[in-house]
């Protein structure tokens, strides 16, 4: 996934360069390309740091921890969508009523845990 993201960033910067350089010159194209690169690179790093690392299933619901060890979302499951055995989208509602949406790819988790989470989500979402 990181390779695809890096390729996306390279293609995006090249597209910005190809669009800006003929109209405004090489200097502005370089500045714009650098800005686009910085924005996309920072967004990639932020996404990687906030990516779910640990899940805990408890009697009150599910809690999700990021790679940095911070609590990303916690609450009971109020909604669920599943696309085959590939992707699971959960809606968690915390005690304050705020909704957190999580998109979980099957290859992020152990297959048995993914299946268990999907069954729990379907059961909780329809209750």
Automatic annotation (TrEMBL):
<keyword id="KW-0472">Membrane</keyword>
<dbReference type="Pfam" id="PF07254">
    <property type="entry name" value="Cpta_toxin"/>
</dbReference>
<dbReference type="InterPro" id="IPR009883">
    <property type="entry name" value="YgfX"/>
</dbReference>
<keyword id="KW-1133">Transmembrane helix</keyword>
<protein>
    <submittedName>
        <fullName>Uncharacterized protein</fullName>
    </submittedName>
</protein>
<feature type="transmembrane region" description="Helical">
    <location>
        <begin position="28"/>
        <end position="45"/>
    </location>
</feature>
<keyword id="KW-0812">Transmembrane</keyword>
């Amino acid at each position: 996934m990181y390779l695809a993201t890096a390729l996306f960033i390279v293609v995006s910067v090249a597209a910005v360069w190809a669009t800006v350089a003929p109209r405004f010159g090489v200097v502005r194209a370089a500045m714009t390309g650098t800005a686009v690169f910085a924005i996309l690179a920072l967004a990639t790093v932020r996404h990687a740091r906030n990516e779910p690392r640990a899940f805990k299933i408890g009697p009150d619901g599910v809690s999700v921890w990021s790679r940095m060890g911070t609590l990303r979302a916690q609450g009971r499951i109020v909604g669920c969508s599943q696309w085959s055995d590939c992707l699971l989208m959960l809606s968690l509602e915390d005690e304050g009523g705020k909704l957190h949406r999580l998109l979980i790819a099957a290859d992020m988790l152990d297959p048995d845990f993914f299946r268990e989470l999907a069954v729990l989500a379907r059961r909780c979402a329809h209750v």
